[in-house]
Specification:
This protein is α/β, with parallel strands linked by helices and about 350 residues long. It is built from 14 helices and twelve strands. The structure holds pyridoxal-5'-phosphate (PLP).
């Protein structure tokens, strides 16, 4: 019997892709003999309308990883440092290393501060770039506006705010990007928009700042089929942005239901403002292996900072579980239940 694999490990949209984006992929093949526009002018306009900014405030890329990578190249040189919280998005140390940047890691604050960023310690690093992520991956916790404003007002260099999961939080700080010369907010169509395989991300900031990022990025990074699908997904109506909004709400409802069930199992998940949940547990590695054996993939996270009590109690280990249609969550719950009993 072939086991149907349930992949809850990468925080993508497990309900799928907006129908408008799917249907335009069918005839994309007839146009691939031609180049896309070098800097995706149409896509920038559509993103600007979606986030309520001007097209000159937007840079797009081959996933937001590409925008993050380009921003590092544009605003820091090899040997410069980049400050960020731990734990955070696993690509940041990778991209920092690729760009020759030295990491300055600062643990998040504890539960009594809502796992907020430690603004003063991040600033103390005097880094060329401060990277922040809200909601943060893998904790799914937000950043307070107060801490964020404190960082922005006192930073010596560029502040990047990664909002890959902003749709699920219902909070965005894009207004801070367009109001300051040194703030770049990055977003993606890989998560709420269900287009991870097409690689489309973007950054929003002051026009001069995004033009620096765009020059470091170079032309022709978003393919023609990816641009068409992204435009379809961003279009008004039930097949595009409406589909995204409906499924974001579904993800939020399912997340809360799943979190309650995890607590019934005696687990102690962190609160979540994203489409995934972090569950600290000493035996995360063996639990993850048990689930994988039965066809459910979750992310095992290790080495979490033990300055945070919940992580210390779990020896720095946790499971990060993506949220999708309820039958998938039920399967994860059943396996967790039997592994824990
Ligand atoms: C998934 C994710 C991204 C998205 O990367 P893409 O390159 O746009 O697919 C960016 N930041 C964080 C924190 C993520 O979890």
């Amino acid at each position: 019997m072939k086991l149907e694999v349930v992949d809850l490990s990468d925080n993508t949209n497990l309900w799928g892709t907006p129908p408008a984006a799917r249907s335009c992929m069918h005839d994309a093949s007839s146009r691939v003999s031609r180049y896309p526009s070098p800097y995706s002018a149409d896509l920038k306009r559509a993103i600007a309308a979606y986030v309520g900014a001007g097209a000159e405030d937007v840079v797009v890329g081959c996933g937001s990883d590409d925008v993050l990578d380009s921003a590092m190249r544009a605003f820091a040189a090899p040997g410069d440092s980049i400050a960020y919280s731990t734990p955070t998005f696993s690509m940041i140390p990778v991209l920092a290393r690729l760009n020759g940047l030295l990491p300055a890691e600062v643990p998040l604050r504890d539960v009594d501060h809502g796992y907020d960023i430690d603004a003063d310690r991040l600033l103390d690093a005097c880094a060329k770039i401060i990277y922040l992520c809200a909601p943060n991956n893998p904790t799914a916790t937000p950043i307070s506006r107060e801490a964020l404003v404190h960082v922005i007002q006192n930073a010596a260099g560029l502040v990047i705010l990664d909002e890959a999961y902003a749709e699920f939080a219902g909070i965005s700080y894009i207004d801070l990007a367009t109001r300051h010369e040194h703030v770049l907010v990055t977003r993606t169509l890989s998560k709420a928009f269900g287009l991870a395989g097409l690689r489309v991300g973007y950054g929003v900031g002051a026009p001069e700042l995004v033009s620096f990022v765009e020059r470091a990025r170079g032309p022709y990074k978003v393919s023609a089929p990816a641009e068409r699908a992204a435009l379809a997904a961003l279009a008004m109506g039930d097949d595009g942005v409406g589909w995204v909004e409906t499924h974001v709400q579904l993800a939020r409802d399912t997340r809360e239901r799943f979190r309650r069930e995890l607590m019934t199992l005696g687990l102690d998940p962190l609160p979540s403002s994203a489409n995934f949940i972090l569950v600290p547990h000493t035996a995360a590695e063996s639990l993850g292996a048990r689930l994988r054996r039965d066809g459910v993939l979750v992310r095992v996270v290790t080495g979490l900072p033990e300055s945070i009590r919940a992580f210390a109690a779990a020896n720095g280990n946790a499971l990060r579980i993506g949220v999708g249609p309820w039958p998938l969550m039920l399967r994860a719950l059943e396996l967790l239940g039997s592994a824990l009993s």
